[in-house]
Amino acid sequence: MIPLLTLALYFVLSGFMLYKALNRSIWGVGYYLLNFFMQPQYWAWGNVLPGGIRWSLISAWLMLGSVYLNGQEAEFREDRNIKRVSMFAILLAVNGLIVQYVFAMNFQKSWPIFVEMAKFVVLYFVMQKAVQSRKDFMLLNWFFALGLFYWGFEARVLGHFTMVQGRLENFGGPGCAKSNELSNICVSLMPVYVGFMAFVKWKEKIIVTGAVLLAIELMMMTQSRGGFVGLISAGVAILLVSSGRVRKRALQGVALGVLGFVILAGNPEIMARFMRTFTSDKSTYEGKRDQNSFESREFFWGVGLTMIQQTPFGSGGDAFDTKRARQIMKSRGSSFYNNSVHQGYINEALDWGVQGLVIHLGFVFSAMWSVFKTMQFRKKIGDLASAFYGPCLIGGFAAWLMGCLVGDFFYLEWGFWLVILSVCYTKIFGQANYGVLSDTKVTQQQAEEGDQDLLRELALGRA
Q: Beta 167-169 vs 162-164: how paired, if at all?
């Protein structure tokens, strides 16, 4: 009965969002994200549908059609911070195209990886264009929050999950059905939810808090040590980049995350794995297994670095899953091989060259810089709620980037989501477009606590 209800819910939500997308582009984005978090082929309730349907492609085309059908609603001014991020996005695609046609060792195998990257670059431009108002920005955050809430509901309430060797596997959406990837997407979005709470009313905070707790629960079910470290990194980053009264809110947000972790960490296996992240006890079976895992990753990283030295301009997508990599492993005494280097930065340089890694890092860090500048501006004018969102979004980046040190997550979709949220945050709340949207101006009460000279300058500049 429940699978039929879920299937019906999927089609009702699809119809509703497509109808709304005819008049407002953000709902086209909602339909696309619905098909990420509730893509039928990833769930048992979708088995009754015809196989082979390309849900992601269909929803992406419909999202694109919605954005260009509705056009531009507000005349936003040029923001140099966003312009810088967009420049890196274009360079990312151009470099990938050059490497694909000039340096790729296996064109056919590399092509799907390039297409995926190019799709994410297009996604970056389309999704940010769909956000035309403060309400659109709120809806975009809601889509992410409700998506992960649904995953947690499927696992912890309905009990629809599979554990393999004590870890949650074959659960989630495109690119994140494995435990490590699932953990990384959870810890990347979790801090964003904490920041989003500053925007919503008390009744809505309950839902967002539920999403945070369910995301923590999913992360713990994956037993991913990269997820644990990423979560810690997020908390540290939030506290480091916040200051003044925003830091007080940051302390409360981090305390909420710690409390949720403590409450939910009742499984002794999960806590034992968490503690082994910071210890090196080799006397137990689990300790030896963890040590072997770390040593094997170090071995693969060494092979990857050797390959980068041989082909610094890149070898095309999936460069590590080649005969060349296996030959290097064999020459170093390994009797087995792995098709993943287990390190996002090495993987990026292998595929698209050292220059590709530099461009991608520029894309990410320029987005983080735009967030930092926007949060500083909102704090100066007295808008602490909007200012608090900034450190939390940077915390999401910190969790994701930390995870990329031990997993091939750097090229995956949710890294682009964080950049999209960053430019949309800057577009709606940044200084360059202050006054374009009336509902993003500070209230009289906020203005009294803000920088009066800056507020007068803004008033004169928009007069």
A: antiparallel
Residue 99, token pair as written in the block? 């490497």
Tally Cβ neighbours within 10 Å of residue 355.
16
What's the residue count for the chain? 463
Can you name the residues that pair with 164 across neighbouring β-strands? 167
* Amino acid letter, 102: V
Any idea what the Cα angle at residue 32 is, between residues 31 and 38, rounded to 5°?
Answer: 80
Per the CB < 8 A criterion, the answer to whether 233 and 404 are in contact is no
pLDDT tens digits for 387-407? 999 999 999 999 999 999 988
Token representation of residue 14: 């699809």
- Provide the mean pLDDT of the chain: 87
Instruction: Report helix angle 384-404 to 244-264, nearest 10.
Output: 50
% the chain with pLDDT above 70 = 90
- Torsion angle (degrees, nearest 10) of CA 391, 228, 416, 112: 170
pTM for the whole structure: 0.92
Which of 38, 29, 30, 36 is closest to 9 using CA atoms?
Answer: 38
Given its phi and psi angles, is residue 178 left (phi above 0), alpha (psi -120 to 50 degrees) or beta?
Answer: beta
Could you read off the pLDDT of 337-352 as tens digits, one per residue? 777 888 999 999 999 9
Contact 77, 436 (CB under 8 A): yes
Assess whether pLDDT exceeds 80 at residue 455. Answer: yes
Three state DSSP letters for the chain: CHHHHHHHHHHHHHHHHHHHHCCCCHHHHHHHHHHHHCCHHHCHHHCCCCCCCCHHHHHHHHHHHHHHHHCCCCCCCCCHHHHHHHHHHHHHHHHHHHHHHHCCCCHHHHHHHHHHHHHHHHHHHHHHHHCCCHHHHHHHHHHHHHHHHHHHHHHHHCCCCEEECCEEECCCCCCCCCHHHHHHHHHHHHHHHHHHCCCCCHHHHHHHHHHHHHHHHHHHHHCCHHHHHHHHHHHHHHHHHCCHHHHHHHHHHHHHHHHHHHHHCCCHHHHHHHHHCCCCCCCCHHHHHHHHHHHHHHHHHHHHHHHHHHCCCCCCCCCCCCHHHHHHHHHCCCCCCCCCCCCHHHHHHHHHHHHHHHHHHHHHHHHHHHHHHHHHHHHHCCCHHHHHHHHHHHHHHHHHHHHHCCCCCCCCHHHHHHHHHHHHHHHHHCCCCCCCCHHHCCCHHHHHHCCHHHHHHHHHHHC
Residue 167, strand partner residues: 164
